[in-house]
Prior knowledge:
Layout: H1 3-14, H2 18-39, E1 41-44, E2 48-55, E3 58-61, E4 68-71, E5 74-81, H3 83-89
Antiparallel strand pairs: 1-2, 2-5, 3-4
Helix pairs in contact: 1-2
Amino acid sequence: MNKSELIAHIATETGMTKQSCAEAVDAVLNGIKTGLVNDGAVTIVGFGTFSVGERAARVGRNPRTGEEVEIAAARVPKFKAGSDLKAAVA
């Protein structure tokens, strides 16, 4: 399911317009993004926790030339599923 399919599903379930559902989905996604930037984690009880992880610097290889390349350390988004989500998928 992609974003537009999710919006259509929410509109069908709630009876809201697709435009208002799109605005709501965008607001939720922006809220999660802002929470990660400002606080480092966003927890939705039963659904899961979005967090920011650290990826250490490492040495990689250029697949074309085989040359070693330094890959810088980076902050990366992570998601850990909550118990309700795990149970629904199982």
